[in-house]
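Sequence in, structure out. Go.
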Amino acid sequence: MNKHRIHFTASMTDDAQSACRRLIHQYGQHKAEEATVIVALGGDGFMLESMHRFMESRLPIYGMNKGTVGFLLNNYDEENLYERLEDAKNTRLHPLRMVAIDKHGKEIEALAINEVSLLRETRQTAKIGISIDGSVKVEELTCDGILVATPAGSTAYNLSAHGPILPVNAGVLALTPISAFRPRRWRGAILPREAHIEFDIKDSIKRPVSAVADAVEVRDVKNVKVEEAPDITINLLFDPEHNLEQRILDEQFML
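Output:
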């Protein structure tokens, strides 16, 4: 008797929904609270949504690509799914925890699997102070924004902002400025995963800044703290030949 009880979930595209119906017909469908594994069908965006949705359940998630890029997903194949789940390699991720305080003094907490980004809201550049573990490292960064990326998210927005690609098991985070004007030569930093990062928004009324943790946006922030959440674990399953560690390594040699 197969030990895997699968809960299928799919993005709203016709292709993903059609694939989901076929897989349910072939393998059955269990309620999420009774399942032992989540199989997500879609693209990277839907995979990210699924990771947030099932984060508290701690169920492993096996994604199959029914989107475009599919960086976080396995190849789509309807055959031998039980065997693929049995052979899959587990990658453990920890999200970032963001605590933002807005101009009204309200505190908002959110989790980010890819990155926490601070972005200017108007035509004027943002001015942001940066402290690490209570020590001021950049008194005032004049920029379009700045982000903190996990290794899993280092190939997303972080890479587009010319940040470093981080191996999944390196135990570090990327701190990457977005279009920095001053100090002009500062290109960011690689921080230990235990780092406590704090951003202080300078002149926040004249130069408003929003903070974004994956899909959660907080407008008009005055202070933002970011750190890894080691108490939360996300388990992703990958076919041995398509593991996330190897994909991120290979991304560094893409020309």
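Check: Residues 96-228 form a domain with the Tumour Suppressor Smad4 fold (CATH 2.60.200.30). The chain has two domains: 6-93+233-251, 96-228.
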